[in-house]
Amino acid sequence: xxxxxxxxxxxxxxxxxxxxxxxxxxxxxxxxxxxxxxxxxxxxxxxxxxxxxxxxxxxxxxxxxxxxxxxxxxxxxxxxxxxxxxxxxxxxxxxxxxxxxxxxxxxxxxxxxxxxxxxxxxxxxxxxxxxxxxxxxxxxxxxxxxxxxxxxxxxxxxxxxxxxxxxxxxxxxxxxxxxxxxxxxxxxxxxxxxxxxxxxxxxxxxxxxxxxxxxxxxxxxxxxxxxxxxxxxxxxxxxxxxxxxxxxxxxxxxxxxxxxxxxxxxxxxxxxxxxxxxxxxxxxxxxxxxxxxxxxxxxxxxxxxxxxxxxxxxxxxxxxxxxxxxxxxxxxxxxxxxxxxxxxxxxxxxxxxxxxxxxxxxxxxxxxxxxxxxxxxxxxxxxxxxxxxxxxxxx
Amino acid sequence: xxxxxxxxxxxxxxxxxxxxxxxxxxxxxxxxxxxxxxxxxxxxxxxxxxxxxxxxxxxxxxxxxxxxxxxxxxxxxxxxxxxxxxxxxxxxxxxxxxxxxxxxxxxxxxxxxxxxxxxxxxxxxxxxxxxxxxxxxxxxxxxxxxxxxxxxxxxxxxxxxxxxxxxxxxxxxxxxxxxxxxxxxxxxxxxxxxxxxxxxxxxxxxxxxxxxxxxxxxxxxxxxxxxxxxxxxxxxxxxxxxxxxxxxxxxxxxxxxxxxxxxxxxxxxxxxxxxxxxxxxxxxxxxxxxxxxxxxxxxxxxxxxxxxxxxxxxxxxxxxxxxxx
Amino acid sequence: xxxxxxxxxxxxxxxxxxxxxxxxxxxxxxxxxxxxxxxxxxxxxxxxxxxxxxxxxxxxxxxxxxxxxxxxxxxxxxxxxxxxxxxxxxxxxxxxxxxxxxxxxxxxxxxxxxxxxxxxxxxxxxxxxxx
Lengths: 395, 325, 131
What we know:
The complex is a heterotrimer. Chain A has a single domain, classed as Orthogonal Bundle (Cytochrome-c3 Hydrogenase, chain B), CATH 1.10.645.10. Chain A is 46% helix and 12% strand. Chain A contains 16 helices and eight strands. Chain A has helices at residues 12-15, 65-71, 78-81, 89-104, 110-140, 145-168, 190-211, 216-222, 230-235, 240-245, 252-255, 276-299, 359-364, 367-370, 376-386, 390-394, and strands spanning 24-29, 41-47, 50-57, 177-178, 181-182, 323-331, 334-342, 353-357. In chain A, the strands form three sheets. A three-stranded antiparallel β-sheet of chain A has the order 1-2-3. Chain A has a three-stranded antiparallel β-sheet with strand order 6-7-8. In chain A, α7 (190-211) packs antiparallel against α12 (276-299). Chain B has one domain (2-324). Chain B is mainly α. Chain B has twelve helices and no strands. The longest helix of chain C has 29 residues, at 12-40. Chains in contact: A-B, A-C, B-C. At the B-C interface, α1, α2, α3, α4 and α6 of B face α1, α2 and α3 of C.
């Protein structure tokens, strides 16, 4: 932190005119930049290397997903949202499907709920693994130690994608969640493979921690950097690991249980510092917790059907009465909510409006508050610690 | 005139060997990094990918030369030329063996330090002339880092001068043959001085964890952002040559140069082994560590390394006075 | 061309000439590589296009690149000069140290102590902070 440039950015519009000041430099950080995690642009106003003001611009990856969902029937919408949070497609599907189920008042069988839990937690392991790698990449660069961590964690993520492939046949576009249950049951012997992968990842975790969160340089780069205090986190609607790292033990899995979380006890990892190091610690703790949850989930997986009611032949079969529903679930990035409004009548086969509450968008809204006072190098680290996925920010 | 001729002949020999070694050093680095990351590394061009540097050279030669709008064309062209020249010219005074030395100056260490210090100028030139903000910030960082780490570099080489009582590099080796390697002999301080010297050299040649001038996750490519083709290649090669020559100099000053446990002919092989080992260790470090922030690097230098190296100089003087004489 | 000139009776003047020759050769190498690039490099059919614009992450550059930096960066340069001049004094001292005796040691210790006092002052004043 730098004492000369404290405080948040308040008057946004005056900033644009500061360009004329001879001592300040205006630097476009992104969209085409190695470490903006996709296409994200921050306009940085620099005093030397210190950020005075930061103005984020999103929207470079806008694909009109929400509009698209209005044009497709309920069942057709599911594969569309896979691409929103492209690091964690499983949870995207779940958030959408659960909102539709709530709207259409469809019960999900117990086995399907447990399977969704297992998928969600496996996906969390994969997502946090990728985050750890890219975070190290932000700090160590593609031409340094960071790329080593990246390649290792990417490999572990790949094992999990292999597991998903065994179930769904896809590595990315799973389309395995249907309204009322799951499309694919898990194949025989799948649990053995899962245990094998989880054991492998768990045995390697200490090594990755030694290369990242326990590394002296890592600590020097993250400690006290990008502090989001409790008030700011709550005020901006931050959720997930970022909120938990700021000292708020809020986790939808525990506080508003869905799936099988009412039966599987979730230990919520928290930290109080609110800096990049705290966020890293929370995520690594969540990795371990997720591994445990998958193990418990597989051990207690109930038998039975995986699809509620009769099998669906035609997508148009789903007809909604006029009404609305909101479901929020805890994804690796925070609360992913789907708010769906149905018009009823003739138009009842598709949502009238579908709004997706993306946790990454809220995370990025913290940038103008926490960037000023940090150097350009810290911008990269702070951005990485927020773990934004531009696909879901811009939708 | 005889001297000039000798410089050209020896220069031709040494530079050719040096450039070849550097090209293969790049290949070695890529292979090492690949092994460290469970990859294969270059393996397509030639056996084991050994011809990869040649392929890279061919590619760089064909690339279009782009001058960014608003660039200072003269400085833009001059910078890579000077970087390479200075990097290679440093090798002039390095005694690879008792005979294989381009110019055995009696102030060899000053030659090394002077050329290392000059290196700042073309790097800043490149940063300024590109008319690019990333390059400019990279240039600023490079200047600050180079001149800051120049201080411990000068002071630790002063330690070597105090111990050996000579400024000629081959003189230092001869002293070490007689009294034992500097990194080993005054048991603690010698190795500290060696590590400091080597660290400062790393900082001068912009290697992780001292690579903030071209921190690609922050500054895209730092000073080389706007460079294309062979001009980029020269900046790149300049850094590798700098690292290679720096390894050789560290081997000469602190690791006894061509001295070794047993002797074959001129001892050139010892020098080669030491240089390559140091060179590889740079990349070992590079591919395992994360990067410091610029102000942390400056702090590390000015708050810890500078007083430490001043202390080492004083220790060396006392040692010289009370033990050696 | 046998053996080490400086040690086998050759003068330092010759060694310096050799150094000049070495530098000349390295210049030739660098120039050759640049020249070869001029020869082989492809040329754009429409120079001066959008591609020649300085890279700023795909956005149109806003504001000046060549701005005035804050003078605090200058302080680092000042310190460098200070310590390097000190080192320039120390090199000749180091060479004749064995002939100077205790007096040489004491004098240089005083000199260094003064320098380090200045360093301590700068440290206290936070002048050594780079940001």
